Amino acid sequence: MSRRVVRQSKFRHVFGQPVKADQMYEDIRVSKVTCDSSFCAVNPKFVAIIVESGGGGAFIVLPLAKTGRVDKNHPLVTGHTAPVLDIDWCPHNDNVIASASEDTTVMVWQIPDYVPVRNITEPVVTLEGHSKRVGIISWHPTARNVLLSAGCDNLVILWNVGTGEMLLVLEDMHTDLIYNVGWNRNGSLLVTTCKDKKVRIIDPRKQQVVAEKAKPHDGARPIRAIFVADGKIFTTGFSKMSERQLGLWDLKNFEEPIALQEMDTSNGVLLPFYDPDSSIVYLCGKGDSSIRYFEITDEAPYVHYLNTYSSKEPQRGMGFMPKRGLDVSKCEIARFFKLHERKCEPIVMTVPRKSDLFQDDLYPDTPGPEPALEADEWLSGKDAEPILISLRDGYVPVKNRELKVVKKNILDNKPPPGPRRSHSTTCDADLSRPALEEVLEEIRALKETVQAQEKRISDLENKLCQFTNGTD
After folding, report:
1. Residue 262: beta bridge partners?
2. Taking 50 as the threshold, does the pLDDT of residue 385 lie above it?
3. How does residue 437 score in pLDDT terms, banded at 50, 70 and 90?
4. Could you tell me which of 148, 144, 143 has the C-alpha nearest to residue 383?
């Protein structure tokens, strides 16, 4: 009688490997702010890192291909008047990034495809609504231009970046500092962790707590929580004896964990990164020098330890590449961007395969860059799963798409003016109509000229970019 001793899994032999020295990003002064943020955000075009800067907050944006030593005069994104605490790339536009700061504001930036000559100082839109520092931002996974921010004023605010206005304010839900916020796959629910040791599941549109769990981990240090497949919740925290723990919870029975495992006695907060396509959770502790990864399945013990990637240097922060930015020809299933004190080191996670052909089982269709909903549709109660794309032929990032912000006119909400008092003003208006039309015609002509010049500038910048990349 044969008995299977080893659990069957295609991810059992996943291994991590750092890139060669010339493919790292060197000479970057990574921020020293004491904050449990990851300090790094990555997409298929750029890597963005929060850096030290005098007189305000800044982050640096580098094209992925621009590896090696970074020029000390490389332009930064500088607009905040206090340190930047969190950054996040828009999932539906690879040239748009949001930043949150100690100065209580959230700013949204348009990053050009070419390397700019001087610092980027003008955001596309500034979102003001928090009264204390803002430590968390996160884009909605399926709705266009919906951005979430959470601050030390215990508020969670949802914004429509396209109009620059608040959509929803979740107040009186958190009694203390919010540690982290995460969306579920279709963006209908939020999971939050708080200093009051509660994990809350929130329906943001109904503005109500759907479920909550007090003390999922008994320790006093910060808890993190994310949604995983089938709406389950994965948490990291600490036991009473300050041992690091991970837990898996089902919303249908939130009182008892499906799995609760103790790991080690280190004191760094574990940042979980989840890949829904492979159901693997990667745990990166700030100050650790390792990345542990686990597979989540439907069979006991539900959270299966796979392996640990170890190195000598501790990590200051970590960026996680979306699936569409990976190299499918090398069976790469994850790529991390590990921050050291003065550099950023990409780490590639690979499944060893002998064949060079596309591996369908490793790369199911994955969320693409197109939003499934508009902000207004989502707000009105609609939900939609992400629009998926195939990675069979690799993913080619789309060209720069401009984020257009249309501010609503506050005068539109005011009542119409009363009847005119004097007859003479209406006569004057009638007399001046031809002159008014002439002015409007002139404005139209000027607008056309400006648009033509902008197109010409854009074409010239693209040519310049080609020259600097050495493609011509």
Report:
1. 245
2. yes
3. confident
4. 143
pTM (2 decimals)? 0.84
Q: Are 193 and 179 in contact (CB under 8 A)?
A: yes
Which one-letter amino acid corresponds to residue 378? W
Query: What's the per-residue H, E or C state across 70-139?
Result: CCCCCCCEEEECCCEEEEEECCCCCCEEEEEECCCEEEEEECCCCCCCCCECCCCEEEECCCCCEEEEEE
pLDDT higher than threshold 60 for residue 410: no
Rounded Cα distance between 10 and 362, Å, is 8
Q: Grade residue 419 by pLDDT with cuts at 50, 70 and 90.
A: very low
Please state whether beta strands 25-26 and 68-69 pair in parallel, antiparallel, or not at all (unpaired): parallel
Specify the residue for token string 């003001």: 128
Nearest to 148 by CA among 103, 197, 200, 90: 90
How many Å apart are CA 270 and CA 268, to the nearest integer?
Answer: 6
The C-alpha atoms of residue 338 and residue 346 are separated, in whole angstroms, by 6
Sign of dihedral through CA atoms 68, 72, 73, 75? Answer: positive
Amino acid identity of residue 424, one-letter, is S
Helical axes 433-468 vs 423-431, angle rounded to 10°: 50
Q: In one letter, which amino acid is 181? A: V
pLDDT tens readout for residues 53-69: 887 899 999 999 999 99
Task: Give me the residue label for tokens 């203390």.
Answer: 176
Q: Which DSSP string corresponds to 233-291?
A: EEEEEE-TTS-EEEEEEBTTB-SS-SEEEE-----SPEEEEEETTTTEEEEEETT-SEE
- The percentage of the chain sitting over the pLDDT mark of 90, rounded to a whole number, equals 70
Contact yes or no for 308/290 (Cβ under 8 A): yes
Give the pLDDT confidence of 221-266 residue by residue, as tens digits.
999 999 998 889 999 999 999 899 999 999 999 999 999 999 988 8
The structure tokens listed for 75 are: 């332009």
* Cis upstream peptide for 301 (omega within 30°): yes
Looking up tokens 């982290």 gives 180
pLDDT at site 98: 97
3-state DSSP assignment of residue 383: coil
Token pair listed for 368: 């693409």
At 58 the three-state DSSP class reads: strand
pLDDT digits over 176-206, tens only? 999 999 999 999 999 999 999 999 999 999 9
